[in-house]
Amino acid sequence: MILSDRDIKKAISIGRIKITPKPNYKEQLGSCSIDLHLGNHFRVFKHSSYPFIDLKGSVDTDQLMKEIVVKKNQPFIMQPGDFALVTTVENLELADDILGKIEGRSSLGRLGIIVHGTASIFDPGWIGRPTMELGNLGVMPVALYPGMRICAFTFEELSSPVEVPYRKKKGNKYAGQKSALASKLSREVSKGVNIRGIAAGDYQ
Question: With 50 as the cut, is the pLDDT of residue 166 above it?
Answer without folding.
Answer: yes
